[in-house]
Amino acid sequence: MIADGERISPRELLDDALRYWERRRRWGVWLAGTVFALLPANCWIADEIYPYVATGGT
Questions:
Q1: Which residues fall within 8 angstroms of residue 2, CB to CB, at 6 or more apart?
Q2: Which helix (H) or strand (E) holds 53?
Q3: Among 31, 29, 48, which Cα is nearest to 40's?
Q4: Which of 14, 36, 50, 52 is 20–30 Å from 20 (CA)?
């Protein structure tokens, strides 16, 4: 927190900005990885499990 009249150095501003973008990048990487992991899982479920259910388990 910045007190009234306190000066912020350019380095502190840059560090804050970099920290902000690092958090956003991490969130984006996590989201992309989660979506990418769901695709093969969904294909596997659709291929292996649903045909078994649709044929009545035979």
A1: 8
A2: helix 50-54
A3: 48
A4: 36
Q: What's the CA gap between 45 and 27, in Å, rounded? A: 27
pLDDT, one tens digit per residue, over 1-58 is: 566 667 888 888 888 888 888 989 999 999 999 999 999 888 888 777 776 656 666 5
* Residue 38 CA: distances (Å) to CA of 5, 43, 45: 51, 9, 10
pTM listed for this prediction: 0.56
Distance from C-alpha of 10 to C-alpha of 14, rounded to nearest angstrom: 6
